[in-house]
Recover the amino acids of this structure.
Protein backbone atom coordinates (compact mmCIF):
# COMPACT_ATOMS: atom_id res chain seq x y z
CA UNK A 1 0.00 0.00 0.00
CA UNK A 2 2.82 2.29 0.98
CA UNK A 3 4.36 1.70 -2.41
CA UNK A 4 1.27 2.68 -4.33
CA UNK A 5 0.79 5.80 -2.20
CA UNK A 6 4.42 6.67 -2.84
CA UNK A 7 3.80 6.13 -6.53
CA UNK A 8 1.02 8.72 -6.52
CA UNK A 9 3.16 11.22 -4.68
CA UNK A 10 6.09 10.57 -6.94
CA UNK A 11 3.81 11.36 -9.85
CA UNK A 12 2.63 14.60 -8.23
CA UNK A 13 6.17 15.73 -7.49
CA UNK A 14 7.53 14.64 -10.83
CA UNK A 15 10.31 17.20 -11.43
CA UNK A 16 9.50 17.34 -15.14
CA UNK A 17 5.97 18.37 -14.22
CA UNK A 18 7.31 21.04 -11.88
CA UNK A 19 9.44 22.38 -14.69
CA UNK A 20 6.42 22.66 -16.93
CA UNK A 21 4.41 24.41 -14.22
CA UNK A 22 7.26 26.80 -13.49
CA UNK A 23 7.73 27.58 -17.18
CA UNK A 24 4.02 28.30 -17.55
CA UNK A 25 3.94 30.55 -14.49
CA UNK A 26 6.95 32.40 -15.80
CA UNK A 27 5.38 32.84 -19.22
CA UNK A 28 2.13 34.05 -17.70
CA UNK A 29 3.99 36.68 -15.67
CA UNK A 30 5.90 37.53 -18.85
CA UNK A 31 2.66 37.95 -20.81
CA UNK A 32 1.18 40.28 -18.18
CA UNK A 33 4.36 42.26 -18.14
CA UNK A 34 4.48 42.32 -21.94
CA UNK A 35 1.04 43.86 -22.04
CA UNK A 36 2.06 46.53 -19.51
CA UNK A 37 5.31 47.21 -21.34
CA UNK A 38 3.68 47.44 -24.78
CA UNK A 39 5.62 44.50 -26.19
CA UNK A 40 2.85 43.35 -28.56
CA UNK A 41 3.00 44.23 -32.23
CA UNK A 42 0.61 43.80 -35.11
CA UNK A 43 1.89 42.54 -38.42
CA UNK A 44 -0.20 42.84 -41.56
CA UNK A 45 -0.52 40.45 -44.47
CA UNK A 46 -2.12 41.54 -47.74
CA UNK A 47 -5.20 39.95 -49.29
CA UNK A 48 -5.48 40.35 -53.06
CA UNK A 49 -7.83 39.62 -55.95
CA UNK A 50 -7.06 37.82 -59.23
CA UNK A 51 -5.37 40.86 -60.74
CA UNK A 52 -3.16 41.36 -57.68
CA UNK A 53 -5.16 44.36 -56.46
CA UNK A 54 -5.21 44.75 -52.73
CA UNK A 55 -8.53 44.02 -51.07
CA UNK A 56 -7.37 44.29 -47.50
CA UNK A 57 -5.06 42.81 -44.91
CA UNK A 58 -5.13 40.42 -41.99
CA UNK A 59 -3.75 41.66 -38.68
CA UNK A 60 -1.48 39.04 -37.10
CA UNK A 61 -0.25 39.38 -33.55
CA UNK A 62 3.42 39.16 -32.54
CA UNK A 63 5.14 39.49 -29.20
CA UNK A 64 8.39 41.41 -29.21
CA UNK A 65 9.91 39.74 -26.19
CA UNK A 66 12.96 41.55 -24.70
CA UNK A 67 14.98 38.28 -24.48
CA UNK A 68 13.27 35.83 -26.84
CA UNK A 69 12.81 38.20 -29.75
CA UNK A 70 9.73 38.00 -31.94
CA UNK A 71 7.41 35.32 -30.53
CA UNK A 72 4.73 33.85 -32.80
CA UNK A 73 1.10 33.62 -31.67
CA UNK A 74 1.11 29.81 -31.73
CA UNK A 75 3.48 29.98 -28.76
CA UNK A 76 1.51 32.33 -26.54
CA UNK A 77 -2.14 32.51 -27.64
CA UNK A 78 -3.13 29.21 -25.98
CA UNK A 79 -1.80 30.42 -22.60
CA UNK A 80 -3.25 33.88 -23.15
CA UNK A 81 -6.64 32.20 -23.67
CA UNK A 82 -6.35 29.99 -20.59
CA UNK A 83 -5.38 32.88 -18.36
CA UNK A 84 -7.90 35.29 -19.83
CA UNK A 85 -5.10 37.63 -20.87
CA UNK A 86 -6.35 37.28 -24.43
CA UNK A 87 -9.19 39.63 -23.45
CA UNK A 88 -7.09 42.78 -22.88
CA UNK A 89 -4.64 41.68 -25.59
CA UNK A 90 -7.51 41.18 -28.04
CA UNK A 91 -8.93 44.60 -27.19
CA UNK A 92 -5.54 46.14 -27.92
CA UNK A 93 -5.45 44.24 -31.25
CA UNK A 94 -8.85 45.63 -32.26
CA UNK A 95 -7.83 49.20 -31.48
CA UNK A 96 -4.44 48.90 -33.13
CA UNK A 97 -5.94 47.31 -36.26
CA UNK A 98 -8.63 50.00 -36.55
CA UNK A 99 -6.07 52.77 -36.07
CA UNK A 100 -3.93 51.29 -38.86
CA UNK A 101 -6.93 50.79 -41.12
CA UNK A 102 -7.91 54.44 -40.69
CA UNK A 103 -4.40 55.46 -41.81
CA UNK A 104 -4.62 53.32 -44.96
CA UNK A 105 -8.12 54.47 -45.78
CA UNK A 106 -7.03 58.09 -45.59
CA UNK A 107 -5.31 57.44 -48.94
CA UNK A 108 -8.09 57.60 -51.58
CA UNK A 109 -6.44 54.77 -53.53
CA UNK A 110 -6.99 52.48 -50.53
CA UNK A 111 -10.28 53.80 -49.22
CA UNK A 112 -11.96 50.42 -49.71
CA UNK A 113 -9.29 48.37 -47.88
CA UNK A 114 -10.63 45.97 -45.27
CA UNK A 115 -8.94 44.72 -42.09
CA UNK A 116 -9.36 41.15 -40.89
CA UNK A 117 -8.89 40.58 -37.16
CA UNK A 118 -8.70 37.19 -35.44
CA UNK A 119 -10.99 36.79 -32.48
CA UNK A 120 -10.55 34.08 -29.86
CA UNK A 121 -13.43 32.29 -28.15
CA UNK A 122 -12.69 33.71 -24.73
CA UNK A 123 -12.77 37.20 -26.17
CA UNK A 124 -15.98 36.65 -28.14
CA UNK A 125 -17.76 35.31 -25.03
CA UNK A 126 -17.11 38.46 -22.95
CA UNK A 127 -20.30 40.31 -22.06
CA UNK A 128 -18.87 43.54 -23.43
CA UNK A 129 -17.50 42.08 -26.68
CA UNK A 130 -20.03 43.87 -28.89
CA UNK A 131 -19.32 47.19 -27.13
CA UNK A 132 -15.58 46.65 -27.42
CA UNK A 133 -15.78 46.15 -31.17
CA UNK A 134 -18.11 49.09 -31.76
CA UNK A 135 -15.93 51.29 -29.57
CA UNK A 136 -12.85 50.46 -31.65
CA UNK A 137 -14.48 51.30 -35.00
CA UNK A 138 -16.10 54.47 -33.63
CA UNK A 139 -13.02 55.75 -31.89
CA UNK A 140 -10.84 55.33 -34.97
CA UNK A 141 -13.50 56.49 -37.44
CA UNK A 142 -13.42 53.41 -39.66
CA UNK A 143 -16.43 52.15 -41.57
CA UNK A 144 -17.78 49.14 -39.63
CA UNK A 145 -18.13 47.33 -42.98
CA UNK A 146 -14.38 47.42 -43.49
CA UNK A 147 -13.69 45.47 -40.30
CA UNK A 148 -13.82 41.69 -40.76
CA UNK A 149 -13.76 39.53 -37.67
CA UNK A 150 -12.26 36.08 -38.23
CA UNK A 151 -13.96 33.37 -36.21
CA UNK A 152 -13.23 29.65 -36.21
CA UNK A 153 -15.72 26.83 -36.49
CA UNK A 154 -14.99 25.60 -32.96
CA UNK A 155 -15.73 29.06 -31.57
CA UNK A 156 -19.05 29.17 -33.41
CA UNK A 157 -20.20 25.73 -32.34
CA UNK A 158 -19.18 26.13 -28.71
CA UNK A 159 -22.35 28.10 -27.93
CA UNK A 160 -24.17 28.38 -31.20
CA UNK A 161 -27.23 30.32 -30.03
CA UNK A 162 -25.22 33.03 -28.27
CA UNK A 163 -22.87 33.12 -31.25
CA UNK A 164 -25.67 33.69 -33.73
CA UNK A 165 -27.31 36.41 -31.59
CA UNK A 166 -24.05 38.23 -31.03
CA UNK A 167 -23.02 38.01 -34.70
CA UNK A 168 -26.39 39.40 -35.78
CA UNK A 169 -26.05 42.37 -33.43
CA UNK A 170 -22.59 43.21 -34.76
CA UNK A 171 -23.74 42.60 -38.33
CA UNK A 172 -26.61 45.07 -37.80
CA UNK A 173 -23.91 47.70 -37.19
CA UNK A 174 -22.16 46.65 -40.39
CA UNK A 175 -19.32 44.53 -38.95
CA UNK A 176 -18.34 41.63 -41.25
CA UNK A 177 -17.43 38.05 -40.37
CA UNK A 178 -15.10 35.56 -41.99
CA UNK A 179 -15.00 31.87 -41.09
CA UNK A 180 -11.28 31.13 -40.62
CA UNK A 181 -9.58 27.78 -41.30
CA UNK A 182 -12.75 26.67 -43.03
CA UNK A 183 -13.00 22.97 -43.76
CA UNK A 184 -11.01 21.82 -40.74
CA UNK A 185 -13.90 21.93 -38.27
CA UNK A 186 -17.35 20.48 -38.07
CA UNK A 187 -19.70 23.20 -39.27
CA UNK A 188 -22.98 21.84 -40.49
CA UNK A 189 -24.67 23.44 -43.45
CA UNK A 190 -27.68 24.19 -41.25
CA UNK A 191 -25.56 26.45 -39.05
CA UNK A 192 -23.73 28.03 -41.94
CA UNK A 193 -27.07 29.12 -43.34
CA UNK A 194 -28.02 30.79 -40.03
CA UNK A 195 -24.77 32.69 -39.55
CA UNK A 196 -24.46 36.24 -40.89
CA UNK A 197 -21.11 35.52 -42.55
CA UNK A 198 -19.56 37.55 -45.33
CA UNK A 199 -16.65 35.25 -46.12
CA UNK A 200 -15.32 31.70 -45.98
CA UNK A 201 -11.56 31.39 -45.59
CA UNK A 202 -10.22 28.15 -47.04
CA UNK A 203 -7.72 26.60 -44.66
CA UNK A 204 -4.13 26.56 -45.85
CA UNK A 205 -3.90 22.78 -45.45
CA UNK A 206 -6.12 22.39 -48.53
CA UNK A 207 -4.16 24.96 -50.50
CA UNK A 208 -0.75 23.43 -49.75
CA UNK A 209 -1.27 20.25 -51.79
CA UNK A 210 -3.90 21.51 -54.15
CA UNK A 211 -1.83 20.67 -57.24
CA UNK A 212 -0.98 17.11 -56.19
CA UNK A 213 -4.03 16.06 -54.20
CA UNK A 214 -7.22 15.62 -56.22
CA UNK A 215 -9.24 15.39 -52.99
CA UNK A 216 -7.88 18.72 -51.73
CA UNK A 217 -8.71 20.26 -55.09
CA UNK A 218 -12.20 18.79 -54.85
CA UNK A 219 -12.65 20.20 -51.34
CA UNK A 220 -11.59 23.65 -52.49
CA UNK A 221 -13.93 23.47 -55.47
CA UNK A 222 -16.75 22.47 -53.12
CA UNK A 223 -16.05 25.29 -50.66
CA UNK A 224 -15.98 27.83 -53.49
CA UNK A 225 -19.30 26.46 -54.78
CA UNK A 226 -20.78 26.52 -51.29
CA UNK A 227 -19.69 30.13 -50.86
CA UNK A 228 -21.23 31.02 -54.18
CA UNK A 229 -24.57 29.42 -53.37
CA UNK A 230 -24.70 31.03 -49.93
CA UNK A 231 -23.70 34.41 -51.33
CA UNK A 232 -20.35 34.51 -49.49
CA UNK A 233 -16.96 35.61 -50.70
CA UNK A 234 -14.24 32.96 -50.52
CA UNK A 235 -10.57 33.60 -49.83
CA UNK A 236 -7.75 31.04 -49.92
CA UNK A 237 -5.01 31.31 -47.29
CA UNK A 238 -1.45 30.02 -47.46
CA UNK A 239 -0.94 30.65 -51.18
CA UNK A 240 2.81 30.39 -51.72
CA UNK A 241 3.22 29.63 -55.41
CA UNK A 242 1.91 31.15 -58.59
CA UNK A 243 0.90 27.65 -59.73
CA UNK A 244 -1.34 27.34 -56.67
CA UNK A 245 -2.84 30.76 -57.32
CA UNK A 246 -3.64 30.07 -60.94
CA UNK A 247 -5.15 26.68 -60.12
CA UNK A 248 -7.28 28.29 -57.41
CA UNK A 249 -8.43 30.75 -60.02
CA UNK A 250 -9.54 27.95 -62.33
CA UNK A 251 -11.57 26.61 -59.38
CA UNK A 252 -13.27 30.02 -59.31
CA UNK A 253 -11.58 31.29 -56.15
CA UNK A 254 -10.81 34.98 -56.62
CA UNK A 255 -9.30 36.20 -53.36
CA UNK A 256 -5.94 35.12 -52.00
CA UNK A 257 -3.61 35.54 -49.08
CA UNK A 258 -0.18 34.02 -48.63
CA UNK A 259 3.57 34.45 -48.89
CA UNK A 260 3.25 34.77 -52.70
CA UNK A 261 1.72 38.21 -52.18
CA UNK A 262 3.55 39.15 -49.02
CA UNK A 263 4.56 37.82 -45.63
CA UNK A 264 3.03 39.41 -42.55
CA UNK A 265 5.05 42.53 -41.87
CA UNK A 266 5.06 45.45 -39.45
CA UNK A 267 5.22 48.08 -42.12
CA UNK A 268 2.95 47.08 -44.91
CA UNK A 269 4.04 49.44 -47.63
CA UNK A 270 1.16 49.67 -50.02
CA UNK A 271 2.17 48.49 -53.48
CA UNK A 272 2.76 50.87 -56.33
CA UNK A 273 0.30 50.75 -59.18
CA UNK A 274 1.10 47.71 -61.34
CA UNK A 275 3.64 46.38 -58.87
CA UNK A 276 3.79 42.56 -58.80
CA UNK A 277 0.91 42.31 -61.23
CA UNK A 278 3.30 41.50 -64.04
CA UNK A 279 4.33 38.19 -62.55
CA UNK A 280 0.72 37.36 -61.69
CA UNK A 281 -0.24 37.66 -65.33
CA UNK A 282 2.91 35.99 -66.67
P1 LIG B 1 -4.66 32.25 -38.92
O1 LIG B 1 -5.61 33.32 -38.54
O2 LIG B 1 -5.20 31.10 -39.68
O3 LIG B 1 -3.50 33.00 -39.72
C1 LIG B 1 -2.82 32.44 -40.80
C2 LIG B 1 -1.43 32.01 -40.41
O4 LIG B 1 -0.77 31.51 -41.56
C3 LIG B 1 -0.53 33.14 -39.90
O5 LIG B 1 0.33 32.58 -38.93
C4 LIG B 1 0.24 33.54 -41.13
O6 LIG B 1 1.46 34.17 -40.84
C5 LIG B 1 0.44 32.21 -41.78
N1 LIG B 1 0.62 32.31 -43.23
C6 LIG B 1 0.21 33.28 -44.06
N2 LIG B 1 0.53 33.04 -45.33
C7 LIG B 1 1.19 31.86 -45.32
C8 LIG B 1 1.79 31.06 -46.35
O7 LIG B 1 1.78 31.38 -47.54
N3 LIG B 1 2.37 29.89 -45.96
C9 LIG B 1 2.38 29.49 -44.64
N4 LIG B 1 2.98 28.34 -44.35
N5 LIG B 1 1.83 30.22 -43.65
C10 LIG B 1 1.25 31.40 -44.00
P2 LIG B 1 0.67 33.35 -37.59
O8 LIG B 1 0.83 34.80 -37.86
O9 LIG B 1 1.79 32.60 -36.93
O10 LIG B 1 -0.65 33.15 -36.74
C11 LIG B 1 -1.07 31.87 -36.33
C12 LIG B 1 -2.43 31.89 -35.74
O11 LIG B 1 -2.45 32.65 -34.53
C13 LIG B 1 -3.49 32.55 -36.61
O12 LIG B 1 -3.92 31.64 -37.61
C14 LIG B 1 -4.55 32.87 -35.59
O13 LIG B 1 -5.34 31.74 -35.32
C15 LIG B 1 -3.73 33.19 -34.36
N6 LIG B 1 -3.64 34.67 -34.24
C16 LIG B 1 -2.83 35.54 -34.86
N7 LIG B 1 -3.06 36.80 -34.47
C17 LIG B 1 -4.07 36.74 -33.57
C18 LIG B 1 -4.80 37.73 -32.81
O14 LIG B 1 -4.59 38.94 -32.90
N8 LIG B 1 -5.76 37.25 -31.97
C19 LIG B 1 -6.06 35.91 -31.85
N9 LIG B 1 -7.03 35.54 -31.01
N10 LIG B 1 -5.43 34.98 -32.58
C20 LIG B 1 -4.44 35.38 -33.41
MG1 LIG C 1 -7.02 34.34 -39.39
MG1 LIG D 1 -6.58 30.71 -40.95
MG1 LIG E 1 -4.89 28.88 -38.75
Amino acid sequence: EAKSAGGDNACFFDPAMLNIIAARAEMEADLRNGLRQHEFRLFYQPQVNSTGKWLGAEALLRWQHPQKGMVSPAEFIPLAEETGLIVPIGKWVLHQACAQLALWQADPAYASMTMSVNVSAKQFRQDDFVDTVLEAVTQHHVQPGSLKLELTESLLLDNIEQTITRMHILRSYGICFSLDDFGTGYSSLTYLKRLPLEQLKIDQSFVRDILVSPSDAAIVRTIVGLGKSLGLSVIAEGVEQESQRSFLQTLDCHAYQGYLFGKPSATLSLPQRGNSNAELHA
The pocket of magnesium ion (ligand 3) is lined by residues 180-181, 201, 237 (CB under 6 Å). The longest strand covers residues 54-65. DSSP finds 13 helices and nine strands in the chain.
